[in-house]
Specification:
The complex is a heterodimer. Chain A has helices at 2-5, 20-30, 42-45, 50-63, 74-87, 193-203, 211-215, 246-249, 281-295; strands at 10-16, 33-40, 68-71, 92-98, 104-108, 113-119, 125-128, 143-146, 159-165, 179-183, 206-209, 236-240, 257-262, 275-278. Chain A is of the alpha/beta class. Chain B has one domain: Rossmann fold (3-Layer(aba) Sandwich). The chains are: A alpha/beta, B alpha/beta. One flavin-adenine dinucleotide (FAD) sits between chains B (6-8, 26, 36, 38-39, 42, 60-63, 93-96, 98, 116-117, 119-120, 122-128, 222) and A (91-93, 108). Chain B: Belongs to the ETF beta-subunit/FixA family.
Amino acid sequence: LTIARTLGSVSAVVLGGAGATEQFAAKLGEFGAEKIYSGEGPEIDDYLVASKATAVAELVKQVQPAAVLLASTQEGKEIAGRLAVKLDNGLLTDAVEVAADGTATQVVFAGSTIVKSKVTKGLPIITIRPNSVTPEPAPATPAVTVLEVTATDADKLTRVVERVAEQKGSRPELSEASIVVSGGRGVGNADNFKLVEEMADLLGGAVGASRAAVDSGYYPHQFQVGQTGKTVSPQLYVALGISGAIQHRAGMQTSKTIVAVNKDPEAPIFELADFGVVGDLFKVVPQADDEIRKRR
Amino acid sequence: MNIVVLVKQVPDSGAERTLSAGDNTVERASANNVINEMDEYAIEEALKIKEAHGGEVTVLTMGPERAAESIRKALSMGPDKAVHVQDDALRGSCAVATSKVLAAALGTLNADLVICGAESTDGRVQVMPHMLAERLGIAALTGARKLTVDGAQLTAERQTDEGYEVVTAATPAVVSVWDTINEPRYPSFKGIMAAKKKPVQTLSLADLGVSADEVGTAGATSAVVEFAKRPARSAGTKITDEGTGGEQLVAYLAAEKFV
Ligand SMILES: Cc1cc2nc3c(=O)[nH]c(=O)nc-3n(C[C@H](O)[C@H](O)[C@H](O)COP(=O)(O)OP(=O)(O)OC[C@H]3O[C@@H](n4cnc5c(N)ncnc54)[C@H](O)[C@@H]3O)c2cc1C
Ligand SMILES: Cc1cc2nc3c(=O)[nH]c(=O)nc-3n(C[C@H](O)[C@H](O)[C@H](O)COP(=O)(O)OP(=O)(O)OC[C@H]3O[C@@H](n4cnc5c(N)ncnc54)[C@H](O)[C@@H]3O)c2cc1C
């Protein structure tokens, strides 16, 4: 919403199960949604992606917006993809910034290259990476318009039969957290990951893991940071026992401040760390934790 | 079951990658080009389904002449044959155009099941499977970490931020897979030798009835206006732990107001 406001007046679209709009309306108003289009119910909720794209496409035809912005989650991108095909329109994914003229900034190739792109056919359909800007409140009182959504037969081909939540604790969501503490192969085993969790909890952050740590079974896959995992861009990223391979950097390179603990002084992670400690994480981390407690 | 696996050749993600200065497209000529990693998992999954249920596995690639190397590499894992869509006009195609071409090629292949990677390591656009499903009017089960085939019925566990969703559909369908789904096999020597003799059909845009001005830089629905190397992060302070490393670390965090 914060990015969308730079383009003009903003309407939010909520698509989900019954009650979804009620759940989000206050927050959407706080960040400047002037209207809310609400599509709820089984036609939306029971099928994968396709019926949501149909709903958005219908709305685009009705209200002719200047642009459509979505979150750069897998589902957000998938809706954008179907929408682009339906409207024979261009799309840009993973933008971190959108200018008033619709030019999007994308950070590509493991964070090494900054690209400015424009949709040249149709309206800008752009997906925005989480955490790319700090949301700024701009209170509005949105009126809710209910959308009559009719999924087509083709939309109903893939049915969602179950949604299963796995170990969602009290920690912030990884891709949105402002502090992330990640562990790598250097953590040694699954049990030792408690050390990473403890530091994350002391700092109020999320826990991440390198692919080597995930592949070795130390930590679940949904916490993987990097090219084949999550892209994070927190204020603070703490890398514990992570060497800093290019594919890992791909997911954390745009963090504001990077701190690393690694016993190998030559580890590439030190090339991008604002503060690096060459040392054994099993000594450094418990001492740091004690120090944090002391300073409270 | 007639299975088509989508395989894209990409520049190696472990090395330096860039766009070329002339037309802002990916610099592929100088890059070390490899099979998109997720696609190896797609090939493995296709081979497993063939082994369990019978059928045929076809590799489909859209890419320049040198993508032929990746096609041979893919075939050496075990698929039966390949289709290579190759046309100079395709250079610089956006995702919308790519999906148009791949959908046209799939139209000639009569697949029960199309399997692809959940994303490519270069574009990472993550849209191809749903775009193809939209164009072909078939089901899409994307982001699978587990896939079960029971006759014509497909059930997948779709990885989400919160956990997973169980999604079902009947064939024909497009399925995209993450690297959590299996462990891709290495090509055997026999496989490598056999791959040399497997049929690879090359198709041009004209063969597919797609016009050149709908694809490539000419038909692109989005354009790169400019690009720049991101300034490399410079290393900051590095200390060696001599007993107070943890304390020094927290002193830094406190100075930066994180503690
Ligand atoms: C296509 C592709 C995609 C990939 N995607 C990802 C991805 O998404 N995310 C990702 O992370 N990787 C990814 N990788 C893998 C990546 O190349 C590296 O293999 C991986 O990041 C290494 O993880 P690591 O740093 O934990 O392990 P290692 O490289 O083994 O590093 C372990 C580090 O721990 C240090 N260490 C050991 N013991 C201690 C101790 N007691 N105290 C302090 N330090 C210690 C060591 O010095 C070493 O530097 C990908 C690879 C490929 C080919
Ligand atoms: C850095 C970068 C950024 C880009 N950003 C955009 C953008 O914002 N908008 C846009 O429209 N285009 C973009 N592109 C172009 C886009 O990547 C290509 O058009 C590409 O062919 C399709 O997208 P993808 O590979 O990212 O697809 P994804 O949807 O990420 O790929 C999923 C799977 O589709 C299959 N697949 C994809 N392409 C092919 C192929 N050529 N042959 C066979 N199988 C294939 C593979 O199995 C792959 O694993 C970008 C390209 C780059 C390099």
